[in-house]
Amino acid sequence: MCRSVDIVYLCSNKSTTSVTAAQIREISGVEGGSERTFQPRVKRGWNHLNADQQAAVVARYGAGETSTTLAEEYRVAKSTILRVLREARVVVRRQPMTPDQVSEAAQLYEAGLSLSQVAKRLDVNQETMRMAILKAGVVLRAPTKAKTA
């Protein structure tokens, strides 16, 4: 039996043969051409919010819940939640860190934790935390390469 690469070569522009689809089916052992010899790619099922869910997101955000919490609960990207809020003409809140959080972040970072480790530990956005500790006067270390497992 021919290898797949041999069949592909026969169909390529570099081959001097003129091979038909029927000949390829014969070479590959597939009869009639109706059988599929490969599995179709599975598409990722994106979660979408229906109208009721969108209304609930707007109401809950208005009641004080964060966009991050809502995104996690509805299993959608945070950008999806923000888009729903903007489409509903809701003013999106900034979520600054409290002075206690900034102080703790600075201490953890200066103790040797990375920006991403500190942000994860405090459950805040990394860029928000980075900007807050810079504003507090913390001098950032040079970036290091992530350790691979």
Automatic annotation (TrEMBL):
Residues 49-87 form the Resolvase HTH domain. It comes from the Bacteria. InterPro entries: Resolvase_HTH_dom (IPR006120). It holds the Pfam family HTH_7. One of its GO terms (molecular function) is DNA binding. This is Resolvase HTH domain-containing protein. It comes from Agromyces protaetiae.
